[in-house]
């Protein structure tokens, strides 16, 4: 914003008052010029001019009291014969009102102006003065009505602009919140599983009194590999926050159905005895949303087992085919021994996020304790047939 624009904005609230002062000064100047041109130095003419000048100062209040100012202008027209103040008052009244008061004041103004001109000149018939007065008053009424309608139109445009800006801000805020929630779910789903594996391996080493070198080496390799995988996944998720030069946001690589066995194998390698029964046609392309939902359900269920029931016997069953439904059921028993402390507290957001994901995939999610003290997670979603461009193998 340049200096001229800032000055204009500071001056804008004072412009109506400035215009009133200029208009009042111009009216007083016209009254004085008229008095000088008439050349009448009679006491009545002087008093009439002085009264008109004093009355002209009421134009400063024409916006707040338009009827009163128009009435004062009619009195001035009757006393001095000058109709300037009366016309300005009627114009201001027409800007603000279009009711009986406007037409009553206008009619009185027409009669007063015609009668004053006829009595002072009397060269033509009264009808001629009446017609001329009617034309003049109607001109100012129409001018005032035009100004009023134009002002209302501009105010309506400004109001619509303000509403549009407010709605745009609300939509932008909602979009930011939705994006933050999506990224938070991705961060939780991607990072929590692998971090829980790292904590599980480290906790196992802490609980072992005298681990042998081979076990330490294997655990260190697992921790290093898992940490690198977690870092790679984290970079993929954070990639959506970076904008490419053309303004498009790259999508991170999405999990596929064929990645499910590797996910189960990683948990088995981490020490969870898993019995798997995977009869689903994982090699057939599936919709990206369905594949991502299935992967996140399995990942979150195994993450919770690592946190709360490490070492508990677990069964993983995945069934389904295109044109039917894809079902995932993961059940773990109660842990056979105390769980090594991982230091990872559950936030409670995982299952909530899963319910939202499964709901978006038109499926249903069930989770809860089992009679033997374990936990069961069950998800079922429709698997459409004939997917092509949006499918994920």
From TrEMBL:
Molecular function via GO: kinase activity
Catalytic activity: ATP + protein L-histidine = ADP + protein N-phospho-L-histidine
Coiled coil: none
Every Signal transduction histidine kinase subgroup 3 dimerisation and phosphoacceptor domain range: 179-244
Location of region: Disordered: 363-393
InterPro entries listed in its UniProt record: HATPase_C_sf, Sensor_HK_TwoCompSys, Sig_transdc_His_kin_sub3_dim/P
Ranges that cross the membrane: 21-38, 44-61, 68-95, 101-119, 126-149
UniProt xrefs under Pfam families: HisKA_3
Cited SUPFAM superfamilies: ATPase domain of HSP90 chaperone/DNA topoisomerase II/histidine kinase
Leading EC class: transferase
E.C. designation(s): 2.7.13.3
Lineage: superkingdom: Bacteria
Record keywords: ATP-binding, Kinase, Membrane, Nucleotide-binding, Phosphoprotein, Transferase, Transmembrane, Transmembrane helix, Two-component regulatory system
Name the record gives this protein: histidine kinase
Organism: Prescottella soli
